[in-house]
Amino acid sequence: MNSMNLKVKPLDMETGRNIVVLHEDDVGELGHFAGDRVKLATPKAELVAIANTTRRMVGRGEIGTFIEVTEALSLKPGDAVSITFAPRPRSVDFIKKKMDGRQLADEEINSIVDDIVAGNLSSTELAAFVVSEYIRGMNLSEIVALTQRMVSSGDKLELDISPVLDVHSIGGVPGNKYALVTVPIVAAAGLVVPKTSSRAITSAAGTADVMEVLANVTLGLEEIKRIVGKVGAVLAWGGAVRLAPADDIIIGAERMLGIDPRCQLLASVMSKKLAVGASHILIDIPTGSGAKVEDLDQAHSLSHEFMELGYMLNVQVEVAITYGGQPVGHAVGPALEAKEALETLRGDGPRSLIEKATSLAGIMLELGGVASRGMGRQMASDILKSGRAYQKMREIIGAQGGNPDVKPDDLPIGDKKEILLAPYGGYVTHIDNQRINLIAHTAGAPRDKGAGIRVILKEGRKVDKDEPLLEIYAEHEAKLDKALAIAKRRSPIRVEGMLLEHLVKKGHVFKGGRETGPPGARA
Amino acid sequence: MNSMNLKVKPLDMETGRNIVVLHEDDVGELGHFAGDRVKLATPKAELVAIANTTRRMVGRGEIGTFIEVTEALSLKPGDAVSITFAPRPRSVDFIKKKMDGRQLADEEINSIVDDIVAGNLSSTELAAFVVSEYIRGMNLSEIVALTQRMVSSGDKLELDISPVLDVHSIGGVPGNKYALVTVPIVAAAGLVVPKTSSRAITSAAGTADVMEVLANVTLGLEEIKRIVGKVGAVLAWGGAVRLAPADDIIIGAERMLGIDPRCQLLASVMSKKLAVGASHILIDIPTGSGAKVEDLDQAHSLSHEFMELGYMLNVQVEVAITYGGQPVGHAVGPALEAKEALETLRGDGPRSLIEKATSLAGIMLELGGVASRGMGRQMASDILKSGRAYQKMREIIGAQGGNPDVKPDDLPIGDKKEILLAPYGGYVTHIDNQRINLIAHTAGAPRDKGAGIRVILKEGRKVDKDEPLLEIYAEHEAKLDKALAIAKRRSPIRVEGMLLEHLVKKGHVFKGGRETGPPGARA
C-alpha cells in the first residue's frame, strides 16, 4: 500500500468518533477522497480513523487529529505518524444492504453495532442506518440480534439474583411519576427492581429528573449494585452508566431527524432492560391523544411485538396499556412531581396516580411470583396503604444519598407562580399533553427543578368562567412570563363551552379555539 | 425567547456548514440539545448555525465558531455574541416527508436545495435526504423541480446565443476521451459547445484530467464565456465554477455511502448542462459489462427518463447508447489519452474512438441544425478527415493557454513501463473495465499525468502465448510495481483459451481464471 509520513497537529475537536483531517493534496497524492479511512500507525499503536480533507486547517505533510484520536494514540504536536488508506468498514456494505430492503444476518448486525460503539461510522453512515431502519424496518429476528449486540457491546449489571423485575414506560405523557410509587411497592414485597431511567430533553421531566429532587441519581454500576443489594431497588439515571451505548448514539441521530423507527424503539427498550439483568419486564404503553401511541390498535400491535421479542430473548414480558390522553396526577415538573409522589406514598395522592402506580405494581408482583394472578393489584394497594412502600422509598432515598426524612413541603417548588383561568364555563373536554409539556418546559423544567405545572381541573370536571384551570411555577420571572404567554395563546386545557366560531359579517369568519390563531385573526 | 451572551472562541475547523460548539451545560440552561440551531447576533449581523455540544472544547460562557461562521460574521477571539435558539429549518420536515414516501411539492424541494447550498443542513440531515432519494425515488415532476432549483441556486453561464450544444457521458468506461475529438468537430461546424467536465476520483482519468495535459482547465465563468465567444467551444473543469453547487455537496454524501440514486443522477446531469445554458443536449450512455449501465433494458429506461426530463425542462435531449463493455480506443490515463485524442484529430486514431467521436458529433450536428437528419455522421467524419477539427482543437488549446503546436510525441508519458503478457494463446473474450481502472489508478493516474495503460489487444483479437496484452506506464517505480502485481493477480484481460480448472488429485480441485484465488489455492 502507498503510505505517507505526516506530522501530528492535534485539533481541539471531539465528536465521539475517530476523525483525522488531511490536506486535500496529500489525499489526492494517495488517490483517495473524503469519507475514506486511514490507518494511523505510531511505533506503539495503530488505529483506523475517518479522513476528512481540507485546504487550510492543516498544511501539506500534516495530519489534524480530533481529541478521540489524539488521546487513543497519546499523540503530541509534531509527532510523526505513518498513514495508509484502510478499506471502508464492511458494516457500510451491510447498511447499504438494509437500504436495499434486504434482511440482515446476525453477524452483519453485530458488525454495524460494533462499529457504531467504536466510533467507526461517520455521521453520514450512521444516518443512513437509522433512515434505513425507519423506511425498511426490521423483522423480529433482526431485532433480536440488534438487541443482543447492543447489550453485549456495553456494560452489564450482574446481580446473581432471580427474578429481577423492571418496568418501562413508552414516553410522551406529562406528570408520569408513577415509578417513584410503583418501584417502592414492588421492592417492599421483597422483589429486586434495578430501575434506570432517562432525563427529559424536550419534555418537562423524566423519572431521573424527578428522583434527583430527592436523592443522587448519577450512580456508577458498582454503586447501583451495592444499593440494590442493600435495599432491593434503585432509581438511577441511565445516562451515568454505559448500558447499551449504541442506543444512545443511535437516538442522537433519530432526534436530529425527528424519527423513531419502531424496530429501534423495541431494541432500545429491551436492551436497556436486559443490560440491568431484568428477567421479568413490564412495559407500560400510555395510549391516548398526545401520547406517543395514540390509539388502541397501535398499542396492541406494539404490545405483541414486545411480548414476542421478550419470548425470543428468553425474558418474560408483559404489557400494560394505560390511559395516556392527559397528565398522570396533577403535577408536572421535577419538584412538583417528587412532591406528589411523596404525598402519594404517605397516603395522600391523587386517584389517577394511585390507580396507575398500584396497577403496574400489581402486575409486577404477579410477574415476580409473590402474588397470585389477579391478586397483585390488591396486594400493591395494601402495601401502599400500610406505609411499607413509603418506608421502602425512605430506604432507597437514604441509600442514594438523599434525606429519608424529607417532607413533601420541604421540596423546592418555584416561588414564582401564575394561574391560568377558564375563559368560559363548561366541562374540561381535553388536556393537550404536548402543550402541557411545552409550557412546563418553557417555565424552566427540568433544568429548574422547581418549575412546572399543577393541573387543577382534569378531563370531565366542570368549571366556571374565571375559575383556575392550572398553576404555572417557575424559578425565574422571565421564564414564567413566557410560559404564561404561551398558555394564554395556546390553551392546553379545552373547555367544552368554549367559543369555536364567531361570525361577524358576511365573508369574514373569525375563529377561536384550538386549531386556530389568536382572536381576530382573519380566516 | 431565552437568549444568552457568549464569548467567541474561533475553532480551526471548516466543513462547508455553519457550525458552532456550545458547552453542554449552557445548552441545558437553554433547554435544547445537539442538532438544534442557534441564531447568532452581533451588532452588525446575524446568522443561523447548527449547534454541537461539548464538555471540553469550549468552557461555559464560550461559543466555538467554525471557520465558515467566524468569517461570515467577521468574529475575533473574545468577541461577544448573543444567541437564541432558532427553529430547525423546515426543509428537515420535507426530508421527513420524503422518508415517508410522499411526493414533495416544488417549494419543498426548493427549500431543501437552498438549505443544502447555504450549509444549513447537518451531515445527518443531508444523508437522510440522499438515502430517502435512493429508497423512495422521485417522480419526474419532482426531478424537474430539483433540477431547476439546483441550477438557479448556483452560477450560470449566460451566452446569449442559440443553439448551445452540449454532450455528457454517463461514466464508468476507461479511456473515454471522445469529447476531445467530438467537441472540436462540432465547433468546427460553427456550433457553440461550452463543455464542462469532471476530474476522475476513483477511475483513471476524467475528461478534465485529459484536457489538462494540453491546456489549462481551471477556468472561471468569465474566462469560459470569453473563450467560447472567441473559438466557439471550451473543455473546462466543472469543479472550478459554481454550477449547480448543491449537486457537488449531494454527490459527496452519495460517495460516502456508495449509492447513486437514479433521480439525483438525472437531476445532476441536467442541472450541470442547463447551468451552461445548453439548449440541445446529447446524453451518451455507455452500456455493457463493467460500465455504469450494464444492459440495454436499463439503458433504454434511463434514455426515456432523460428525454422526458428534457421535454419538461424545455431543452432538446437526445440519447446515444454506445458500447461500454471495454475501453474506448487503447489509451487509459491522462497523457496517454490526450496523445490518442491528438493522434485521432491528426488523422491517425483507433477505429473505436473515431467511430464513437464521429457518431456523437454527428448527432450533435443534426441537433444543432447544421446537418440534416441522417447526414450528421458523414459530415462529422468529413470534418475530422479534413483537418478542420484538428485546427479547431488547436484554437481551443491556444485559447485555454496551452501550446497549440503540441505534437502527440511531446506529451509526457511516464518513463517507467511494464508489459503484461498473455499467459495462454486464444482469443481475447473480455476486458474488465473496473480492473483496467484500478490498475491505471494504482499506477498513479490521474494524479500522475503520465501514468496509465495502453491496451494492445481488444476484445475479439487473437493472441499467442506470451504476446503482449497491455502496457502499464508510471512515473514512479513503486506505483508501477504495485500496478503490475495487481494486473498479474487479477488479469483485466481474459483470453478464451485460458485454463479454468486444473485437476490434480482426487478431492483437490485447483482452480485458475477470473473468479478465483492464486494458483494452488484450495477450492
**Mind telling me which CATH architecture of the largest domain in chain A this is?**
3-Layer(aba) Sandwich
CATH top level class name of the largest domain in chain A? Alpha Beta
Oligomer: homodimer
Mean pLDDT of chain A: 91
* Overall number of structural domains of chain A: 4
Sheet with most strands: strand arrangement of chain A: 1-5-2-4-3-6
> Total number of β-strand segments of chain A?
20
The main sheet of chain A comes to:
6 strands, mixed, barrel
Q: Tell the overall outline of chain A.
A: globular
Q: Tell me the CATH topology of the largest domain in chain A.
A: Pyrimidine Nucleoside Phosphorylase, Chain A, domain 2
Structural class of chain A: alpha/beta
Radius of gyration of chain A over all CA atoms, rounded: 26 Å
Q: Unreliable runs of chain A, pLDDT <50, ≥5 residues?
A: 508-523
Q: Which keywords apply here?
A:
homodimer, 523 residues, alpha/beta, Barwin-like endoglucanases, Pyrimidine Nucleoside Phosphorylase, Chain A, domain 2, 4 domains, six-stranded mixed beta barrel, disordered C terminus
